[in-house]
Specification:
It is built from 3 helices and 7 strands; from the N terminus they run E-H-E-E-H-E-E-H-E-E. It is an alpha+beta fold. The protein has a single domain (11-148), classed as 3-Layer(aba) Sandwich (Cytidine Deaminase, domain 2), CATH 3.40.140. Strands 1, 2, 3, 4, 5, 6 and 7 form a 7-stranded mixed beta sheet that branches. Helix 2 (74-85) runs parallel beside helix 3. The longest helix is centred in the last third of the chain and has 14 residues, at 113-126. The two termini are 28 Å apart.
């Protein structure tokens, strides 16, 4: 028997003004995307923004449905849109933000398991690490790659 350990590292910023210019733009795009969420049931608006390796940014937001499994998270909306509209561009980073009643959450929101797996798939497709920015009003967490959020991705096919 061998005991093994997984460690992750991430950077915590005290706010958006501590970010580099392009990361600040990406975080602001995720925050603005929360306004386009369709969340009449949960009232939990999530926005996501994808940064391509050439600097372009696209956004997505969560979209709910009365038949709950039919909705989709902001992360997957943004990633699917990014891939469908720009299939040959590498995704370099993803920012995620959430708000309730028009106010950005104090602490960053973390992606669900399904979104983490989709993030891992697009990181693999892009061939470069996809940085993740989880954006809150008074904290921003930066992860250097999706593996830090999902260390054992499903990639066996």
């Amino acid at each position: 028997m061998t005991n093994k350990e997984i460690k992750i590292a991430y950077t915590e910023y005290a706010g958006i003004d501590e970010l580099a210019a392009k990361d600040k733009e990406l975080a602001e795009a995720a925050i603005s995307a929360t306004a386009t969420a369709y969340a009449p049931y949960s009232k939990f608006n999530v926005g996501a923004a994808v940064l391509f390796d050439d600097g372009e940014i696209v956004k997505g937001s969560n979209q709910e449905n009365a038949a709950y499994p039919s909705g989709i998270c902001a992360e997957r909306t943004a990633l699917f849109y990014a891939s469908a509209s720009r299939p040959n561009k590498a995704m370099a980073a993803l920012a995620i933000a959430a708000s309730q009643e028009g106010a950005l959450l104090e602490t960053p929101v973390t992606p669900c398991g399904a979104c983490r797996q989709v993030m891992a798939q697009y990181q693999l497709k892009s061939g470069i690490p996809m940085r993740i920015l989880l954006v809150g009003a008074h904290k921003i967490w930066e992860f250097e790659k999706v593996d830090d959020l999902l260390p054992f991705t499903f990639d066996s096919i």
